[in-house]
Amino acid sequence: MSALLCVDGVSVDYSGFKALDGFSLTLQRGEVRVVIGPNGAGKSTLCDTIIGRVRPTTGRVVFRGEEIQRLPEQDIVARGICRKFQAPGVLPSLSVRDNVALAARRDRRWWHSLGTGIPAAEREGIAAILAQVGLGDHADRPAGELAHGQKQWLEIGMVLATGAELILLDEPTAGMGPAETRRTADLIRGLGATRTVLVIDHDMSFVEQLDARVTVMHQGRFLCEGSIAQVRADPEVAAVYLGHTA
Amino acid sequence: MRKALCRAGPWALLAAGAAMPLVLSDYSTNLLARFLALGIVALGMVLTWGHGGILSLGQGVFFGLGGYAVAMHIKLTDLAAGEIPDFMVWSGRTALPLWWAPFQSGLFAVAAALVVPALVGAGFAWAVFHRRVSGTYFSLITQALALAFATLIISRQDVTGGFNGLTNFTTLFGFSFSDPAFAHGLYWLTLGCLVLAYAGLRWLLGSRFGMLLRAGRDGENRVRFLGYDPVPFKVVAFGVAAMLSGLGGALFTLHAGVISPAMIGVVPSIEMVVWVAIGGRLSLPGAIVGALVVNLARDAISSVFPAAWPYAMGLAFVLAVTLFPQGLAGLRKARA
């Protein structure tokens, strides 16, 4: 196994407030990793830093052996990292299929967009993604009409459609009921073989269903790492995190 | 039956439009031709404002660039060798400014009426969008641009004609503006340009480019983090709209026989927004209808009671924005 992503001593300083403080994390190819931590622990900032929305004050982000922390966002995506945002970021006026088609396109230069329809070569892959996220029957509806949970799945589908090897999912089950949460966990577990997934979430039952290694963050720093059972048993974690929710 | 009617409708409308010069008086034909030229400007704003979410309060600038380009050529065509336009003489100039010289070529002037607005528009849009300035801030900058452009033209009377603009057109390509047949020809040219602009934009909005433009409007961050750079899409859309504005400005200038700062500054630029808001900013036919209806109403109301027009337009704008956000086009959709 080789490391796909290496976050190395990254700090993000918002005029004195350290959202990330010398944080490090290594993801192996094919791994599903969950990052938890109380509000303000820096989980979303971690995603922002990897995807290029926030530039680290110090430290490096290394993807496939190359530093990416200074690249423009679209170049980072082109290298194979894609993120699902916390609030569903689907494009409401486009159909469900077009949402995925837009994400699936590899050639993203504007002059190559001067054509109509979805290229035949991409149609099959788009249909497969729609089936995978359970939206095959809703392909022609405007994405804005979908229920909240379906929007979350659609966005996961879009992220998958980009072909990214590393997928960042920021609270993918926010606003979902237990049944939807279970389906989402199944979906993510099914990705493990082909993709590397970094999940951020609060919902402990969801984290348990994912059955993945857990990294705990606190105040922008690494607190501990282990299986969900180990993390739960850790008195320090209980103090900063589980103590709040229990 | 209904479907057939829907299909035939636009063609019948086009035929009726083409027949207008044969039915209407020369005065009315001229008026309609002006409004069709304004319709071309409005079409461009459907692309930027409706589908791109980019509200320009400075389309008058591009309208003016197109209008001045053809007006400069016309001012030069009637001159004997070595002569310079009358207003330059009055301002004490003795020689033609260097940048006027290429406009002696009609072909250059026509090309400039399209290319200069497109390049200025695209360059301006790139300068603003690549700094990630958008929304209201962008609109305000476009408005400042309109103010600056009108001020510049007024202040350089010796080379621009100043406040009075460029007028007293006599001939173009050897045709006399007082010849009714030439006026009819210009009308059909304008109608043809409108149809071409409509067809071109319809194709563009239906293409993947249009889809990405709408996607960027609804969620620029999502598009960016799917790996697209949204900037070129917005820049191209803005450039195309600026070019259409220049085309509309050039044609309007030919029909009106004048181009002046009063037609390109802040107020006319905002009026352009009003046409599209009333017609429906997401609808190409709506934009044409908006430009026609508002300008016909303007002509009717201001010929009876000139002071009432600004109030009527303001009221119509407020009603359109509050009650019919999709404009007239939205009303039609709601009924269907």
Describe the structure.
The complex is a heterodimer of chains A (246) and B (336). Chain A is globular and about 55 Å long. Chain A has a single domain, classed as P-loop containing nucleotide triphosphate hydrolases (Rossmann fold, 3-Layer(aba) Sandwich). Chain A is of the alpha/beta class and 246 residues long. Chain A is built from 9 helices and 10 strands. Chain B has a domain at 30-264. In chain B, the strands form 2 sheets. Chain B has a two-stranded antiparallel ribbon with strand order 1-4. The model of chain B has no long low-confidence stretch (mean pLDDT 90). With 336 residues, chain B is mainly alpha-helical. Classes of the chains: A alpha/beta (246), B mainly alpha (336).
Query: So what's the oligomer here?
Result: heterodimer
CATH architecture of chain A: 3-Layer(aba) Sandwich
Q: What is the chain-wise order of helices and strands of chain A? A: EEEHEEHEHHHEHEHEEHH
Helical amount of chain B:
over 70%
Distance between the termini of chain A: 37 Å
Task: Summarize the biggest pleated sheet of chain A.
Answer: 6 strands, mixed
